[in-house]
Amino acid sequence: MEMLLTGDFISAETALDWGLVNRVAEDAELDVAVAALTDKICAKSAVAVRTGKAMFSRQLAMPLEEAYAFAGETMACNMLAEDVAEGIDAFIAKRHPEWKHR
Fold this sequence. Notes:
Blueprint: H1 2-6, H2 12-17, H3 30-42, H4 46-59, H5 64-78, H6 82-93
Helix pairs in contact: 4-5
């Protein structure tokens, strides 16, 4: 609200401190930081990422109790996805998962 009302700019470090951003990177390191994050996301099950994004977007407009119920239902349904079994098997075998759906 302060930024909205005053129009003041803040530094990247302040935005990080206030929880407005998840991370900051120097200009010279930005491409490396973006690649590291995208590689991490792309290594996950596409089904889980897609489901998680959709769930997150929908629950934002819900009251807290409804959002928790919706998230729980979505996660329970997601447990039936074929990729979940692969993720569990890979974890137990201490190997990288081979996702069925990309």
